[in-house]
Write a structure and sequence with these properties.
421 residues; homotetramer; globular; 2 domains; three-stranded antiparallel β-sheet; alpha+beta; 12 strands; four-stranded mixed β-sheet; paralog of FGE (formylglycine-generating enzyme)
């Protein structure tokens, strides 16, 4: 995180207190439907147990705020720093990531106590006059926790999918709005290109990887006004998309063959009928919904098949800049992509972009542990834009750069097409 | 399991009812100190979650008794047959063994209900007149469940050891009896060899692999009257045992180097002081206790270092034949090897033998699913004898053949020496 | 390969005949010092045996020229299409890449005969009037063979390095020119940035991935006028570069720890003295030489340590555009980086760039098998620029885009720094 | 190797000189048809390159004879001790076994020179008066080289099988004797059991693992008077043998599924016709030949299917004791199992036994490096008896114990049935 972030307008202490309470409570709200067993499982190395998310987000506040700025603060437990550090080398050694699911103790009870302990002490810290650095770190901690709220949902979806019982995370408490059963054809939002400015301009919070704001040169292009749907994906499948080497990147074709991929993750075909496992149980694939849980490789192959291409992250950003955030983000009742009104540039499913995740010109990771937040991951990943149905409201913005390796499928990842014009 | 077992004296229905209740209750007693989180974790592929053990032992009764012999019985859940079949190919496909820890649902609550459901229906079955086949299968199911009681303890020990908190499974509820701090030197129980009979002779229950009873020819030998102690093992370590290739089998030396072994599993050296993780927490290594959690490779290397050898399974059996079962088996209060009175041939820790696990002359695995119980594992394993501190009382006997691959260390495995005389 | 390449000026048949002879002969010249044993070994999956390179380059002409355009041509051997296809899915199945070193037959003798057979028939084809498509494909085949000449050298270096005998590929037949033992400090060639054109503009041969030519917007920058030297790398090592997590990308730090990296590939430290294995045997590290055989991760960490950064591929291209190709490329006598005159932008060692290997705007891979040449590798790799001491003269140019995954170290890969100004 | 071997009658120096020349020459005879490329390849970790076998057998004489007993002897090359030590920990470190195929230099020429150098110096040693220890070690070295002659053939068969060209090692120089196209039904050689003596009794050479001679108690049994044939194996295949879990050991069934086994190694089914790759090229499966290249798992499953069992090693030894060595061993013209006259107990294919490879009562591996020859492999393997078509004549005997892990298929391994009577 660059030192330059300090010149942003600091949130007021009052505002931070309120938001602290809300954000922390929303994590607990998301974990509430989950049993102790659910919260313990790590279904693959990429996934973390729910109770680990709950603890790690608390560790972030304990480590970077309470230990640093609350005089006399004593850590809740001497082993938690080791257990709940995710990847901060500067903070010290940590428990092997791939074995987080081997730790039964501390259990959910101890972790609830840990959260409570951190919250109580954070309340004390937040009553004080906060300088910009502290305000910034609290703000960062809240955005960090929101990211883990999304991770918690995508991780628990993978965990639950391992059971042959197809258990739902939650039943919809109110019915989803009736949606169009077919989706309108794509319209292309056109842009003439030229020199345009991208990246975050303060004030307002942003992660360090969103800046510095700078100019790039774009060629004329069109961007689809909605995501690719399941119906379109079924056409791709039916046309032999997963069996046609010529559509795929070489690494993608290897992944198809090694993984035995023949559809998005969580899809299954029984007796010629496709169903999909969702956080609300298994149900028929809805052709009108945006497709979700596809890798970059699949997104790219689909685009090739569709005689289009994936957009760059800047094509997306420039187009979305003037658009409302009208899509579905993480709500309290329903966590699955819904058919989109058009045009819609946010929500439902993250859009893979053709852009590798690299630093913007002038980017410098900060010295200090929080400098490890983003910069050290800038290789072997692609940028995704726009948020998804598991992104907390208020967390997404036009300059937000999410990133994943090209083979992953367990996040809520979808496809938005672009084309040259 | 051979058809020949039918000629054993069948236990009475009354006896079976009583024992059914006791054995099933003891499983729940063992699981009682464990949280839902503890019961969910699978810390390595060899380990099964506690809740899986509780369910699988119920599945055994449901599959081989209730579905076969209780008219009108309907399975508790259509997916449990898939989830809780361990390895019976004849019964159908099953959930991947190494991913048992990925299944959060059914949780401990559903599994308690499953056990209750099975118990209720078994009670109905056990009120009826039982033919020999049914009696035999109930008896088998109870011995099967006792085996899983031991597995449950060795598995949960491994699970708990993964936490840096060194959490105890249970605190001793009454203090262990004061034990001698040093152990008397070994005495050798001598046998002149010759043609002797080994294997199980009915009546009484035995597993199919314990028979047929047959004669073998032994050379004269001496068998140590107690297990190797931790104090003796410390001498082996101090003498460079783990760094001297010449003491080791070739596969053993590879295991030492790949695994970085320098002491038994669960031992750790901090500031020159050895401690050991036990089911009652971490504590100093006690030189008087039998050493435990060593592989066959380590047992063999130790024997070579001690200018002795491991006994064959028949040397053990012939010597133990006339001896009382005076060692510590699984009790209600304490699960860790205790210093032994001498002579003592049972309990504390299983003794690795030099005998590969192979069928006795005339052994035939039965047709039918329960025939998969033992016979199909008769390769790549060694026989262990004598039971351990986690073996349920009444479960061990002089002909009992336990077996494990030579590299494992998570069972309660120890060493008893033999020598030629 | 895009159809658009056809509008380039086609080389004359006379010119092609002559160049065909020269290029094919140079491959044999490079293989001449190698024994049949040398030519058979595959020392890791990335490496191909020399005899495979000799055969595969012939297969390219046989498949795309002789079988397609020489009437009545019959393949040399029915199994060679399977054995020597590298990765062209459209052409058919192929031998497992990682097992190329398991094939002893055909041997070097059969492969010499294969090359002769292809050359004889190519001579017939090249006497005819060639249309643009054929001329283009011959030209492509020659550039393809030149790429394999470089691969042959980097691969055989890895093969020879596996022998404890440190065998040289070739003894220098004439002594290397005396070189400065210390290297002048870096000067920075400055560029004001702005909108600039990059990519290949015809006429003249280029690979499809070098176009279309297009405009990009650059920020002001400075580019080092020489590569990083071994002397500078020794400072990085001495300063703990390989032990300082904060300098590394996360994937890079994992590679350091998994691979036990503490210096560039082929370096070894005995009694505090660093030596390096070269194609001319093992010898002391020369501080004045450009450093070579470092991964992208190491290049990036070094740049961070040096308070600089890696250039983008366009920063390199714009700077090198007006510069002479004055560095050392692959000659007949010496294959190792030499100390550079300054400024020097070509030769010695490929410069890793910060640019991910991605398509240029408007790039479309062609339909047909040769369309698999470049486009399908455009993910998970970084661009390298400038050629190296193993690049055939005439093969490099300012728009040339080489590419490798970030973890590789066996190519002749080095580092050129850039900085913001 | 036990000290007790010294009391055997030492071979005379004259006899040893002659045999030394013959054995060493036969190795070169076997390698003669192989190109430098053939001799370099290691097709899997278990396989060693031919040139490695040629060098390692020379290293044995150089290390244990010339360096130990020929005053003033200087090793041929300072790196060969490292390169050509197989597994003798006591002699020092060695090159990674699985990478023997990565070493192109020294090549076949240098290794021929190495053999010549060793032979010249051995000739000097063998002109002297030899004490028993030296005579014993020379004798051991010759038997060691004979073992590698067999390994050389089974290894090169695997190497050649990797090429889609199905290249023959050698064309039969004279036609195989016409053989019966069908094989007579098995007869069972009966034995009443009882206490019998097994193991080697001197004089005459034996490996340490063949002793001490001792008594064992056998039950009555019958042993098949010939090996299982390919025709019988085809019945097993046609009856679904490879698809019937109930026939297999658990580890065997896992191997079937992981390896995709559906026939012996080297068999292939094209258009319903089975062919087999042999050292003389690919050809139709001959139903009358003994089946070869099956694992212990397959042998055991076949025996179960045939309602028989595998013999113990002692059942084989007692039966074969009075029988002539009338089968085909390694000759100069043909290396493949031939249909057997009955009864026949030696040659064609090694017979898997039900006996795990364990020490005989009283076995002690010697101190010193040659003590690593056999004893340290006594775990995780099964004993095979009787020799095969690649065993040098004079090398096999009734007490000879060969051993392999149960999953291997590349040796010349077959099946002989036994049954209880």
């Amino acid at each position: 995180m660059s030192a330059v972030v300090h010149d942003q307008a600091a949130p007021s202490a009052l505002d931070l207190r309120e938001r602290y309470g809300e954000v922390r409570a929303f994590t607990e709200y998301l974990a509430a439907p989950l049993s102790a067993e659910d919260q313990t499982v790590q279904s693959m190395p990429d996934v973390s147990p729910t109770k680990w998310h709950r603890a790690h987000t608390s560790w972030f506040f304990e480590t970077f705020l309470l230990q640093a700025y609350l005089p006399g603060y004593r850590p809740f437990h001497r082993d938690y720093g080791f257990l709940f550090n995710s990847y901060y080398e500067a903070v010290g050694p940590r428990y092997t990531r791939s074995q987080r699911g081997c730790v039964s103790r501390p259990g959910t009870g101890e972790i609830a106590a840990y959260r409570h302990h951190v919250d109580e002490h954070m309340a004390r810290l937040l009553t004080r006059d906060l300088d910009d650095r502290i305000s910034y770190l609290v703000d960062l901690g809240l955005h960090h926790e929101q990211q883990h709220q999304e991770l918690l949902l995508m991780d628990i979806k993978h965990v639950l999918s391992m059971s042959p019982l197809d258990p739902p995370y939650a039943y919809p408490r109110r019915p989803a709005k009736p949606a169009p059963r077919t989706q309108a054809a794509v319209s292309w939002t056109r842009c003439d290109g030229g020199v345009v400015a991208v990246g975050h301009s303060r004030p307002g919070f942003s992660f360090d990887n969103e800046g510095p704001r700078h100019e790039v040169l774009l060629q004329p292009f069109g961007l689809a006004d909605r995501l690719v749907t399941c119906g379109e994906w079924l056409e791709f499948i039916d046309d032999g998309g997963y069996r046609t080497a010529g559509l795929w990147l070489s690494d993608g074709w290897a992944a198809v063959n090694e993984g035995g991929w023949d559809a998005p993750l969580y899809w299954r075909c029984d007796d010629d009928a496709w169903t999909v496992f969702t956080l609300h149980g298994r149900r028929p694939v809805d052709p009108a919904e945006p497709v979700c849980h596809v890798s970059y490789y699949e997104a790219d192959a689909f685009a090739t098949w569709a005689r289009a291409r994936l957009p760059t992250e800047f094509e997306w950003e420039v187009t979305a800049a003037g658009q409302p955030v009208n899509g579905q983000l993480s709500g309290r009742d329903y966590v699955h992509p819904r058919p989109q009104p058009a045009p819609s540039f946010y929500g439902e499913a993250w859009a893979w972009t053709a852009s590798a995740y690299l630093p913007y010109p002038g980017f410098r990771p900060a010295t200090g542990a929080v400098g490890e937040y983003n910069g050290k991951f800038m290789v072997n990943q692609h940028v995704l834009r726009g948020g998804c149905c598991a992104t907390p409201p208020g967390h997404i913005r036009g300059t937000y750069r999410n990133f994943f390796p090209p083979a992953v499928r367990w996040p809520f990842t979808g496809v938005r097409l672009a084309k040259d014009i």
